[in-house]
What does this fold into?
Amino acid sequence: MDVPCVRVEQSEGEATRKRLADAELLDDEYAITGDEGWLYLPVTDAEAVPGELTVVTYDAPARRTPTTPADILGEDLSYERLGDVAIVDEDDPARAREIARAIVDSDLPVETVVDRASEIQGELRVRDWTVLVGEETETVHREYGHEFALDLDTVYFSPRLATERHRVVEQVQPGEHVFDMFAGVGPFAIPAAARGGEVVAVDLNEAAVEYLRENARRNDVTARLTAVQGDVRDVAGGYHDWADRIVMNLPHSADEFLDTAVVVAGDDCVLHYYDIQHEDDRFGPGERAIRAAAEPAYDVAVEERRTVRSYAPHEYNVCLDVRLTRG
It folds into this structure.
């Protein structure tokens, strides 16, 4: 079928494929095809292709539909992927092993399958895992063109929040001071630095900060990102009145750190405050806590109340985007 394709010399094929994939422009419905020294890479939106690349119409064959775990078991399955690790959440060990086998027998590029064995625990926000297939819990996850190395055994990371992270990061302006209070391996901090923000990223988990620094190197943002290992309450004094934007992604207990956020906030600062609350009053507790911490030193204006996802029956993970303006 005639479809829009980027035409490049074969020697430039892999670099161009990666570039288009990172921009989410590759059309997976059609196969990449070679012909007389050229490669034809199908794209979803010809107008969005960078101008220096050549777009042509080419008769690209339909791509073979990959075999999925659902195809193998004949039913819809629930699992998540982080790089080449798949995550399931099953109470029945036999059922977990059945799903794991279907995942590795499918066409998914998965090397390890793990089952959640505990809830998130302790100050370092880690959980226990049962390894069902493979050995390595370390992987490299790709999200909106950025790479994040991590080890599920030692750090917290949720792929479910990718869209929410992207929403926040898209608001960052070049030169803006961004303070990430609970940074983990950097899924907010690194894209913010890539957009030109000056980022300070703090986490209590030593392993997470080691990965954060590695990920800063992977994504070429070391010049704009300062990674700090420690309790953010101890770190904040060095960044008094500094931040134009603060990320507080620590649901369940972010309210305990609002006094620290006020210390870090500059004269005009946007706060992204994450919370988990009952459906009957998703935003009220967070808004009241922010006002109690920030007023009267700051005028408090809620710019967006956003439900991020369902967390548990009748409970929701939410975000308040709040502008603090010094009175």
User: Anything to note?
Assistant: The chain has a mean pLDDT of 93. The two ends are 62 Å apart (CA to CA).
